[in-house]
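Input.
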Amino acid sequence: MADAAMADAVQLRHKRFFNLGRLVRPTIGVLVIAFLMWRLLTVLFIQQAYGADTWVRFAVSGIILGSVYAVIALGYTLVYGILFMINFAHGDVMMLGAFAGYFTLEAFNGAGILNRSLASSILSITVAFTVGMLVATFVAIALERIAYRPLRTAPRLVPLISAIGASLFLENMAQLVFGAARHTYTNPEVAKRNIGWTLMVSGKEVLITYTGVLTFVLSILLMIGLYILVQRTKMGKAMRAVAEDKEIAALMGIDVDRVIANTFAISGALAGAAGVMWGLHMGIVYHFVGFLPGIKAFTAAVLGGIGNVPGAMLGGLVLGVIEAMGPAALGLPFQLKDVLAFSILVLALIFRPTGLLGEVLTEKKA
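Output.
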Protein backbone atom coordinates (compact mmCIF):
# COMPACT_ATOMS: atom_id res chain seq x y z
CA MET A 1 0.00 0.00 0.00
CA ALA A 2 2.85 2.36 0.84
CA ASP A 3 4.49 1.72 -2.53
CA ALA A 4 1.21 2.39 -4.34
CA ALA A 5 0.70 5.64 -2.42
CA MET A 6 4.26 6.73 -3.23
CA ALA A 7 3.74 5.93 -6.91
CA ASP A 8 0.51 7.95 -6.92
CA ALA A 9 2.30 10.88 -5.29
CA VAL A 10 5.11 10.78 -7.83
CA GLN A 11 2.60 10.57 -10.68
CA LEU A 12 0.66 13.54 -9.28
CA ARG A 13 3.89 15.55 -8.94
CA HIS A 14 4.83 14.79 -12.55
CA LYS A 15 1.36 15.78 -13.71
CA ARG A 16 1.55 19.12 -11.88
CA PHE A 17 5.02 19.75 -13.31
CA PHE A 18 3.78 18.93 -16.83
CA ASN A 19 0.80 21.27 -16.46
CA LEU A 20 3.13 24.01 -15.21
CA GLY A 21 5.40 23.46 -18.22
CA ARG A 22 2.41 23.80 -20.54
CA LEU A 23 1.74 27.25 -19.05
CA VAL A 24 5.32 28.50 -19.31
CA ARG A 25 5.62 28.50 -23.12
CA PRO A 26 2.41 30.49 -23.81
CA THR A 27 3.40 32.96 -21.08
CA ILE A 28 6.82 33.51 -22.63
CA GLY A 29 5.19 33.84 -26.05
CA VAL A 30 2.81 36.54 -24.82
CA LEU A 31 5.69 38.44 -23.19
CA VAL A 32 7.81 38.27 -26.36
CA ILE A 33 4.91 39.46 -28.54
CA ALA A 34 4.12 42.27 -26.09
CA PHE A 35 7.75 43.43 -26.10
CA LEU A 36 7.95 43.35 -29.91
CA MET A 37 4.68 45.27 -30.27
CA TRP A 38 5.88 47.89 -27.75
CA ARG A 39 9.13 48.40 -29.64
CA LEU A 40 7.34 48.51 -33.00
CA LEU A 41 4.78 51.08 -31.87
CA THR A 42 7.51 53.18 -30.25
CA VAL A 43 9.59 53.31 -33.44
CA LEU A 44 6.65 53.86 -35.80
CA PHE A 45 4.54 56.39 -33.91
CA ILE A 46 6.78 58.03 -31.31
CA GLN A 47 10.28 58.16 -32.75
CA GLN A 48 9.18 58.19 -36.42
CA ALA A 49 12.79 57.72 -37.48
CA TYR A 50 11.99 56.62 -41.05
CA GLY A 51 9.66 57.81 -43.77
CA ALA A 52 7.37 55.70 -45.94
CA ASP A 53 9.91 55.64 -48.77
CA THR A 54 12.56 54.16 -46.46
CA TRP A 55 10.20 51.43 -45.30
CA VAL A 56 9.44 50.54 -48.92
CA ARG A 57 13.18 50.35 -49.63
CA PHE A 58 13.61 48.01 -46.66
CA ALA A 59 10.72 45.84 -47.85
CA VAL A 60 12.02 45.62 -51.43
CA SER A 61 15.52 44.77 -50.20
CA GLY A 62 14.08 42.10 -47.89
CA ILE A 63 12.00 40.48 -50.63
CA ILE A 64 15.02 40.27 -52.95
CA LEU A 65 17.28 38.88 -50.22
CA GLY A 66 14.53 36.51 -49.13
CA SER A 67 14.19 35.24 -52.70
CA VAL A 68 17.81 34.05 -52.62
CA TYR A 69 17.30 32.47 -49.19
CA ALA A 70 14.18 30.75 -50.53
CA VAL A 71 15.95 29.16 -53.50
CA ILE A 72 18.73 27.85 -51.23
CA ALA A 73 16.11 26.66 -48.72
CA LEU A 74 14.39 24.68 -51.49
CA GLY A 75 17.54 22.55 -51.78
CA TYR A 76 17.67 22.03 -48.01
CA THR A 77 14.04 21.00 -47.80
CA LEU A 78 14.29 18.70 -50.82
CA VAL A 79 17.20 16.69 -49.37
CA TYR A 80 15.59 16.61 -45.94
CA GLY A 81 12.34 15.34 -47.41
CA ILE A 82 14.18 12.34 -48.90
CA LEU A 83 16.91 11.52 -46.37
CA PHE A 84 15.85 13.39 -43.20
CA MET A 85 19.30 15.01 -43.02
CA ILE A 86 20.45 18.61 -43.16
CA ASN A 87 23.10 19.14 -45.83
CA PHE A 88 25.16 21.87 -44.16
CA ALA A 89 27.50 21.94 -47.18
CA HIS A 90 24.64 23.28 -49.30
CA GLY A 91 25.66 26.92 -48.84
CA ASP A 92 29.15 26.10 -50.08
CA VAL A 93 27.70 24.39 -53.15
CA MET A 94 26.00 27.74 -53.78
CA MET A 95 29.38 29.46 -53.39
CA LEU A 96 30.95 27.29 -56.10
CA GLY A 97 28.01 27.99 -58.40
CA ALA A 98 28.55 31.70 -57.83
CA PHE A 99 32.23 31.35 -58.74
CA ALA A 100 31.31 29.42 -61.90
CA GLY A 101 28.97 32.22 -62.96
CA TYR A 102 31.63 34.83 -62.16
CA PHE A 103 34.27 33.18 -64.36
CA THR A 104 31.74 32.65 -67.14
CA LEU A 105 30.86 36.35 -67.24
CA GLU A 106 34.56 37.25 -67.07
CA ALA A 107 35.21 35.01 -70.08
CA PHE A 108 32.40 36.66 -72.07
CA ASN A 109 33.67 40.10 -71.06
CA GLY A 110 37.23 39.24 -72.05
CA ALA A 111 36.01 38.03 -75.44
CA GLY A 112 34.10 41.27 -75.98
CA ILE A 113 30.73 39.51 -76.13
CA LEU A 114 29.22 40.62 -72.81
CA ASN A 115 27.92 44.02 -74.02
CA ARG A 116 28.09 43.64 -77.79
CA SER A 117 24.30 43.66 -78.12
CA LEU A 118 21.14 42.99 -76.13
CA ALA A 119 21.04 39.42 -77.41
CA SER A 120 24.67 38.78 -76.42
CA SER A 121 24.05 40.20 -72.93
CA ILE A 122 21.02 37.95 -72.42
CA LEU A 123 23.03 35.02 -73.79
CA SER A 124 25.85 35.78 -71.35
CA ILE A 125 23.49 35.77 -68.37
CA THR A 126 21.80 32.58 -69.56
CA VAL A 127 25.13 30.78 -70.02
CA ALA A 128 26.34 32.05 -66.61
CA PHE A 129 23.27 30.56 -64.94
CA THR A 130 23.64 27.32 -66.90
CA VAL A 131 27.33 26.89 -66.03
CA GLY A 132 26.74 27.82 -62.39
CA MET A 133 23.93 25.28 -62.08
CA LEU A 134 25.93 22.56 -63.84
CA VAL A 135 29.00 23.05 -61.63
CA ALA A 136 26.90 23.09 -58.46
CA THR A 137 25.01 19.99 -59.66
CA PHE A 138 28.28 18.11 -60.20
CA VAL A 139 29.57 19.12 -56.74
CA ALA A 140 26.30 18.06 -55.07
CA ILE A 141 26.35 14.67 -56.79
CA ALA A 142 30.00 14.18 -55.78
CA LEU A 143 29.17 15.04 -52.17
CA GLU A 144 26.33 12.53 -52.11
CA ARG A 145 28.48 9.81 -53.63
CA ILE A 146 31.60 10.39 -51.51
CA ALA A 147 30.47 11.91 -48.21
CA TYR A 148 26.88 10.74 -47.66
CA ARG A 149 26.13 7.48 -49.45
CA PRO A 150 28.60 5.35 -47.42
CA LEU A 151 26.97 6.69 -44.23
CA ARG A 152 23.36 6.17 -45.25
CA THR A 153 22.74 3.42 -42.68
CA ALA A 154 24.76 5.16 -39.95
CA PRO A 155 23.10 7.02 -37.05
CA ARG A 156 21.67 10.39 -38.13
CA LEU A 157 24.36 12.35 -36.30
CA VAL A 158 27.13 10.82 -38.43
CA PRO A 159 26.00 12.24 -41.83
CA LEU A 160 25.48 15.59 -40.11
CA ILE A 161 29.11 15.63 -38.96
CA SER A 162 30.16 14.56 -42.45
CA ALA A 163 28.20 17.48 -43.93
CA ILE A 164 29.98 19.94 -41.64
CA GLY A 165 33.32 18.44 -42.66
CA ALA A 166 32.37 18.68 -46.34
CA SER A 167 31.46 22.34 -45.83
CA LEU A 168 34.85 23.14 -44.30
CA PHE A 169 36.60 21.23 -47.08
CA LEU A 170 34.81 23.13 -49.85
CA GLU A 171 35.48 26.50 -48.22
CA ASN A 172 39.19 25.84 -47.80
CA MET A 173 39.47 24.33 -51.27
CA ALA A 174 37.87 27.44 -52.77
CA GLN A 175 40.26 29.65 -50.80
CA LEU A 176 43.27 27.71 -52.13
CA VAL A 177 42.03 27.65 -55.73
CA PHE A 178 40.45 31.11 -56.07
CA GLY A 179 42.33 33.01 -53.37
CA ALA A 180 41.05 34.80 -50.29
CA ALA A 181 40.37 38.09 -52.10
CA ARG A 182 36.83 39.17 -52.90
CA HIS A 183 35.86 39.13 -56.56
CA THR A 184 33.42 41.58 -58.15
CA TYR A 185 30.87 40.32 -60.64
CA THR A 186 30.99 41.94 -64.08
CA ASN A 187 27.35 42.45 -64.98
CA PRO A 188 26.22 43.16 -68.55
CA GLU A 189 24.75 46.60 -69.21
CA VAL A 190 21.18 45.26 -69.25
CA ALA A 191 21.59 43.94 -65.69
CA LYS A 192 23.79 46.57 -64.07
CA ARG A 193 23.59 46.75 -60.30
CA ASN A 194 21.86 49.75 -58.69
CA ILE A 195 20.06 50.58 -61.96
CA GLY A 196 16.36 49.97 -62.62
CA TRP A 197 12.90 51.46 -62.38
CA THR A 198 11.95 54.22 -59.95
CA LEU A 199 8.81 54.22 -57.84
CA MET A 200 7.54 57.44 -56.22
CA VAL A 201 6.63 57.02 -52.54
CA SER A 202 5.71 60.10 -50.50
CA GLY A 203 7.31 62.30 -53.14
CA LYS A 204 10.64 60.43 -53.04
CA GLU A 205 12.14 57.97 -55.48
CA VAL A 206 12.48 54.30 -54.56
CA LEU A 207 14.70 52.23 -56.87
CA ILE A 208 13.55 48.81 -58.06
CA THR A 209 16.69 47.28 -59.56
CA TYR A 210 16.80 45.07 -62.63
CA THR A 211 18.86 42.47 -60.79
CA GLY A 212 16.38 42.46 -57.92
CA VAL A 213 13.42 41.84 -60.24
CA LEU A 214 15.40 39.14 -62.05
CA THR A 215 16.20 37.45 -58.73
CA PHE A 216 12.60 37.53 -57.51
CA VAL A 217 11.06 36.31 -60.78
CA LEU A 218 13.59 33.49 -61.19
CA SER A 219 13.07 32.33 -57.61
CA ILE A 220 9.31 32.12 -58.13
CA LEU A 221 9.77 30.22 -61.40
CA LEU A 222 12.21 27.78 -59.78
CA MET A 223 9.82 27.14 -56.90
CA ILE A 224 6.92 26.50 -59.28
CA GLY A 225 9.08 24.24 -61.45
CA LEU A 226 10.27 22.24 -58.44
CA TYR A 227 6.74 21.86 -57.10
CA ILE A 228 5.49 20.60 -60.46
CA LEU A 229 8.45 18.22 -60.73
CA VAL A 230 7.82 16.75 -57.27
CA GLN A 231 4.05 16.51 -57.56
CA ARG A 232 3.38 15.81 -61.24
CA THR A 233 6.27 13.87 -62.78
CA LYS A 234 7.39 10.26 -62.63
CA MET A 235 10.66 11.33 -61.01
CA GLY A 236 8.73 13.25 -58.38
CA LYS A 237 6.55 10.24 -57.61
CA ALA A 238 9.68 8.14 -57.18
CA MET A 239 11.16 10.76 -54.87
CA ARG A 240 8.03 10.80 -52.73
CA ALA A 241 7.98 7.00 -52.61
CA VAL A 242 11.61 6.89 -51.44
CA ALA A 243 10.85 9.54 -48.83
CA GLU A 244 7.97 7.41 -47.55
CA ASP A 245 9.88 4.13 -47.25
CA LYS A 246 13.16 3.28 -48.99
CA GLU A 247 12.86 -0.48 -48.52
CA ILE A 248 9.32 -0.73 -49.90
CA ALA A 249 10.25 1.61 -52.77
CA ALA A 250 13.17 -0.67 -53.68
CA LEU A 251 10.86 -3.70 -53.62
CA MET A 252 8.53 -1.88 -56.02
CA GLY A 253 11.39 -1.56 -58.54
CA ILE A 254 12.55 1.98 -57.79
CA ASP A 255 16.30 2.58 -57.98
CA VAL A 256 16.74 4.25 -54.59
CA ASP A 257 20.37 5.28 -55.16
CA ARG A 258 19.47 6.92 -58.45
CA VAL A 259 16.52 8.78 -56.91
CA ILE A 260 18.69 10.12 -54.09
CA ALA A 261 21.41 11.13 -56.57
CA ASN A 262 18.76 12.94 -58.63
CA THR A 263 17.56 14.71 -55.50
CA PHE A 264 21.05 15.99 -54.74
CA ALA A 265 21.48 16.99 -58.39
CA ILE A 266 18.30 19.09 -58.28
CA SER A 267 19.26 20.67 -54.96
CA GLY A 268 22.71 21.46 -56.39
CA ALA A 269 21.18 23.09 -59.47
CA LEU A 270 19.01 25.27 -57.21
CA ALA A 271 22.06 26.24 -55.15
CA GLY A 272 23.99 27.12 -58.31
CA ALA A 273 21.15 29.34 -59.54
CA ALA A 274 21.02 31.04 -56.15
CA GLY A 275 24.78 31.62 -56.28
CA VAL A 276 24.60 33.38 -59.65
CA MET A 277 21.60 35.42 -58.42
CA TRP A 278 23.64 36.46 -55.39
CA GLY A 279 26.61 37.44 -57.54
CA LEU A 280 24.57 39.45 -60.04
CA HIS A 281 22.64 41.35 -57.35
CA MET A 282 25.15 41.64 -54.50
CA GLY A 283 28.20 41.84 -56.75
CA ILE A 284 30.70 40.15 -54.44
CA VAL A 285 31.82 36.51 -54.36
CA TYR A 286 34.53 34.88 -52.24
CA HIS A 287 35.26 31.55 -50.61
CA PHE A 288 33.13 32.21 -47.51
CA VAL A 289 30.17 33.82 -49.29
CA GLY A 290 27.90 30.79 -48.98
CA PHE A 291 28.20 30.23 -45.24
CA LEU A 292 25.78 32.82 -43.82
CA PRO A 293 23.22 32.57 -46.66
CA GLY A 294 23.33 28.79 -46.23
CA ILE A 295 22.65 28.96 -42.49
CA LYS A 296 19.91 31.54 -42.99
CA ALA A 297 18.36 29.42 -45.72
CA PHE A 298 18.26 26.55 -43.22
CA THR A 299 16.50 28.94 -40.83
CA ALA A 300 14.05 29.79 -43.62
CA ALA A 301 13.39 26.09 -44.29
CA VAL A 302 12.64 25.50 -40.60
CA LEU A 303 10.51 28.64 -40.43
CA GLY A 304 8.42 27.63 -43.44
CA GLY A 305 8.24 23.93 -42.56
CA ILE A 306 11.13 21.61 -43.33
CA GLY A 307 10.30 19.23 -46.18
CA ASN A 308 7.61 21.59 -47.48
CA VAL A 309 8.44 23.21 -50.87
CA PRO A 310 5.99 26.18 -50.65
CA GLY A 311 6.95 26.50 -46.98
CA ALA A 312 10.63 26.93 -47.86
CA MET A 313 9.73 29.69 -50.30
CA LEU A 314 7.49 31.44 -47.78
CA GLY A 315 10.06 31.04 -45.01
CA GLY A 316 12.79 32.58 -47.17
CA LEU A 317 10.70 35.60 -48.08
CA VAL A 318 9.53 36.13 -44.49
CA LEU A 319 13.07 35.82 -43.14
CA GLY A 320 14.44 38.25 -45.74
CA VAL A 321 11.81 40.86 -44.92
CA ILE A 322 12.34 40.44 -41.17
CA GLU A 323 16.11 40.75 -41.59
CA ALA A 324 15.76 43.90 -43.70
CA MET A 325 13.00 45.63 -41.73
CA GLY A 326 13.40 44.13 -38.26
CA PRO A 327 16.31 46.21 -36.93
CA ALA A 328 14.67 49.46 -38.06
CA ALA A 329 11.24 48.40 -36.79
CA LEU A 330 12.61 47.48 -33.35
CA GLY A 331 15.03 50.41 -33.11
CA LEU A 332 18.09 48.15 -33.12
CA PRO A 333 21.48 48.71 -34.81
CA PHE A 334 21.56 47.21 -38.29
CA GLN A 335 24.66 45.22 -37.29
CA LEU A 336 22.29 43.01 -35.28
CA LYS A 337 20.34 41.80 -38.31
CA ASP A 338 22.06 38.40 -38.16
CA VAL A 339 21.23 38.10 -34.46
CA LEU A 340 17.62 38.88 -35.30
CA ALA A 341 17.55 36.26 -38.06
CA PHE A 342 18.86 33.50 -35.80
CA SER A 343 16.56 34.61 -32.99
CA ILE A 344 13.72 33.82 -35.41
CA LEU A 345 15.11 30.28 -35.68
CA VAL A 346 15.11 29.87 -31.90
CA LEU A 347 11.58 31.24 -31.57
CA ALA A 348 10.34 29.05 -34.41
CA LEU A 349 11.81 25.94 -32.80
CA ILE A 350 10.21 26.84 -29.46
CA PHE A 351 6.75 28.01 -30.50
CA ARG A 352 6.21 26.55 -33.99
CA PRO A 353 8.64 23.66 -34.56
CA THR A 354 6.60 22.39 -37.54
CA GLY A 355 6.95 25.74 -39.37
CA LEU A 356 4.44 28.18 -40.82
CA LEU A 357 2.98 25.72 -43.34
CA GLY A 358 3.75 22.58 -41.38
CA GLU A 359 6.53 20.03 -41.64
CA VAL A 360 5.99 17.30 -44.22
CA LEU A 361 6.30 14.02 -42.33
CA THR A 362 6.05 10.44 -43.40
CA GLU A 363 4.37 7.96 -41.11
CA LYS A 364 7.74 6.38 -40.41
CA LYS A 365 9.23 9.65 -39.17
CA ALA A 366 6.11 10.66 -37.29
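The longest helix spans residues 2-47.
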